Amino acid sequence: MSRPHDRKSTGTRTVPESGAQWYVLHVLSNKEGRTVKNLNRLFETDEEMRVLLKSAPLVPTEKVEEVRNGKKHVLDHKLYPGYVYLNVDLRRPDGSLNNDAWYKIQAVDGVISFACGRNREPLPMSKTDVENLLAEAARCSGAARPKVDYKVGDIVVVLDTAFAGEHGNVEMVDAERGRLRVGVSMFGRTNQLDLDYSQVSLVPPGEEGKELPTGI
User: Fold this and answer.
1) Is 42 in contact with 110 (CB distance < 8 Å)?
2) In what order do the strands lie in the sheet with 145-146?
3) What are the DSSP calls for 87-108, one per residue?
4) 203 or 12, which is more confident?
5) Quick check: helix, strand or coil at residue 136?
6) So what's the pLDDT on residue 4?
7) b/e string for 38-56 if b means 16 or more Cβ within 10 A?
8) 3-state class (DSSP) for residue 191
9) What are the residues whose beta carbons fall under 8 Å from the beta carbon of 41, sequence distance 6 or more?
10) pLDDT bracket for residue 50 (50, 70, 90)
11) For residue 181, what pLDDT is reported?
12) What is the sign of the dihedral through the CA atoms of 18, 20, 24 and 25?
């Protein structure tokens, strides 16, 4: 997935108007949530900083559904690990940088740096990049999508239906719908089952426990 941020500027970029300035913060990986809490604390306790903030710090995520030990879990997956997006009026209408605000944000625990321009000052995202970012965040805020763990040829164990406990070969994967076609051999014949991701579990190599049909 391409990232709508962290690119070097090759020229002067027009400063977006108040409320439309978005900046990219590079933060400690796997500490995005804690860093957002620290940023919120800064904006809540510092009146001057609170005025500059136009919307809550953003860490775009999507819900991913996966099966562990036969149970379905929904997890929040970060679209861009190691980054926080900040909608803050860091530059004044004349284009000058609010150095005091810049230093305060950089001093927040968990923040590594801003994505910078040629002069190493914070560079606001372009309008197109902001639109792409917000559209992607909105698109991924809906229902959980199945985590793609399966491919044709994988061996799985069926978790429910009349074939629960049987092993089979994955013959077809419909990643968009989170569905599989699995071939299960019983009593000398192969049964083709259309199953949801949550109805099977991947069998690690070497733990198949039974001979499976080939050439299905």
Assistant:
1) no
2) 71-78, 61-68, 145-146
3) EB--B-TTS-B-HHHHHHHHTS
4) 203
5) helix
6) 55
7) bbeebbeeeeebeebbeee
8) strand
9) none
10) very high
11) 95
12) positive
| Tens digits of residue pLDDT in 163-197 | 888 999 999 998 777 789 999 988 888 999 999 88
Residue 144 and residue 75: Cα distance in Å, rounded? Answer: 8
pLDDT tens digits along 108-166: 999 999 988 666 889 899 999 999 999 998 888 877 766 656 889 999 999 888 888 89
Integer Cα distance of 100 and 74 in angstroms: 41
Burial of 60 (0-12, 13-18, 19+ CB in 10 A): buried
In single-letter form, the type of residue at position 47 comes to E
Q: Are 17 and 54 in contact, with CB atoms under 8 Å apart? A: no
Local structure of residue 120 (DSSP, 8 states)? S
Residue type, 142: G
Radius of gyration of the chain (CA): 24
User: What does the alpha-carbon distance between residue 189 and residue 70 come to, in Å, rounded to a whole number?
Assistant: 26
Round to whole Å and give the CA distance between 50 and 43: 5
pLDDT tens-place string over residues 13-22? 678 988 999 9
| DSSP H or E run through 132 | helix 127-139
**C-alpha–C-alpha distance, residues 211 and 168, integer Å:** 10
> Which two structure tokens, joined as six digits, stand for 143?
């229902």
Helix (H, G, I), strand (E, B) or coil at 197: helix
